[in-house]
Design brief:
By secondary structure, the chain is α+β, with helices and mostly antiparallel strands. Helix content is about 35%, strand content about 25%.
């Protein structure tokens, strides 16, 4: 099925029951997990990189970041010694196992080995939930990060991300914010309905996007709610990994002249999929499911983001590799035809951001941080290209690896080369909740540390100040 489906479309595929559960979990704010993340370090060991607050691993108090994972045993099964296994093989052990009890053998920094028993359980996931902050500088700016468009299709008492953002904005307005940044960077999409509802928070009324189905029927999807939650200055941040639902929101707010789009050109996925059980009687879930592309998505100006992406109004310099995967990278990516439909929408007056764009260009050209990042990337590309030579001896290769590791250590300090023009605070309405939970407090601490060294956010804050002026 995958061989057939993926011949025609990179987003159509077969879902096993396990993969279906994983897919559904991606659209919620909870995870059923043991609570450890790991990666293979430069020494070839499986190093624990994260322990989820509130999980069985966290509550045990016996597992910490930096510990080395030696053995796995699921339920009453065999014990897997991880020595010699690849990262993919170990990930597959977790993916293929349905047991709810896991025995880990770990080694801590003092080289002491211990066995820890974990139970799988539902844990609040901060990775997939709306996060907020107040950036306090020359002006008080609200900041909202949305990692993906989560929803709850069955429990209407637990609403999705659009409702969470609306509530966050109301709290921010009580603190008299003078502008708002909505961060959709690295947001790969999710619920189409949530994307429409989120756009409606900032748009009074009207069409958000246009669909063309498999029978070439063309119809528009609208924000049916009159009024807006927020009418002040708005910036939406995107990058090359903002896809699908993220692009719907960015494009609609751009077409309505409602927001300034800042960042890099987005991924370029403008198709939607639906999922069907292979057992049409819905009795035997073991048959699995099929995810099939059934819609092409168009902006209200009748253009499409497919294989094109959303073009930012003000571009942020991308300091990573220029080569990244996007929709147009796929030879089998669907090409959407042009459509014809009468669409009536009322955009706001055209945004004037020429001066803000010019000032941002000057700042980025003069940035010591960006200059060092570019130099670092050039050095890395040169070192990696040397490794491709078949004439290198083992000693030569080891020396190059040492140089790469040494440069990484130096670049980790590059974050000190830019000035942050704001302090990070949090919503007063949320402080009591976070103070009562050590798990939420730990998430908030990590979130703040990340924002403090986010060059893109720091530049976007300056752009919004110039735009407001």
């Amino acid at each position: 099925m995958n061989a057939i489906a993926e011949t025609y479309d990179p987003h159509s595929s077969f879902f096993s029951p396990e993969k279906m559960n994983q897919f559904q979990a991606e659209l919620t704010s909870e995870r059923e997990i043991f609570g450890v993340n790991f990666n293979k370090n430069r020494s070839g060991d499986f190093e624990i990189t994260n322990v989820y607050p509130g999980s069985s691993a966290w509550l045990s108090g016996e597992i910490h970041e930096g510990d080395i994972l030696l053995c796995l045993k699921f339920g009453n099964g065999i014990k897997h010694n991880l020595e010699g296994l690849t990262l993919l093989q170990v990930n597959n052990l977790f993916a293929e196992n349905k047991q709810t009890v896991l025995e880990l053998t770990v080694k801590n920094n003092q080289q002491v080995e211990s066995i820890v028993i974990l139970e799988k359980g539902k844990v609040y996931s901060d990775e997939d939930i709306v996060k907020t902050a107040i950036l306090q500088g020359d002006k008080k700016i609200g900041y909202i990060s949305l990692p993906d468009f989560y929803t709850n299709e069955t429990d209407t008492t637990n609403l999705g991300c659009a409702n969470d953002i609306a509530k966050a904005i109301i709290k921010m307005k009580l603190e008299n914010i003078e502008g708002l940044i909505l961060d959709l960077r690295n947001n790969g999409g999710g619920s189409l309905r949530e994307a429409i509802d989120l756009s409606g928070i900032f748009i009074d009324y009207g069409p958000i996007l246009i669909n063309c189905d498999e029978e070439e029927n063309v119809y528009s999807l609208k924000d049916m709610n009159r009024g807006t939650v927020y009418r002040g200055p708005l910036v939406v941040m995107i990058n090359q990994y903002s896809a699908s639902a993220s692009e719907i929101v960015a494009a609609s707010l751009q077409d309505y002249n409602r927001a300034l789009i800042v960042g890099q050109t987005s991924y370029g996925k403008a198709t939607a999929q639906f999922i069907l059980p292979l057992d049409s009687n819905r009795i035997d879930s073991e048959w699995g499911y099929i995810k099939i592309t059934n819609l092409g998505l168009y902006r209200v100006d009748l253009t499409t983001n497919q294989k094109r992406g959303v073009l930012p109004d003000i571009r942020l310099e991308e300091v990573g590799s220029a080569e990244f995967e996007s929709e147009k990278s796929y030879a089998n990516a669907i090409v959407l035809d042009s459509i014809s439909k009468k669409i009536y929408y009322t955009p706001l007056p055209k945004l004037e951001f020429t001066e803000a764009k010019e000032k941002s260009h000057i700042r980025q050209n003069q940035s010591v941080y960006l200059q060092k990042e570019k130099e670092f990337n050039n050095e890395m590309e040169e070192l990696v290209s040397k490794l491709k030579s078949r004439e290198l001896s083992l000693d030569d290769r080891l020396e190059i690896f040492k140089q790469i590791e040494s440069r990484w250590l130096v670049m980790n300090k590059n974050e000190t080369t830019f000035d942050r023009t704001f302090e990070i605070a949090f919503l007063q309405k949320d402080n009591d909740i976070y103070s009562m939970s050590p798990f939420l407090g730990k998430y908030r601490e990590h979130f703040k540390e990340k924002l403090e060294v986010d060059y893109g956010l720091i530049e976007t804050y300056s752009i919004l100040l110039d735009y407001i002026k």
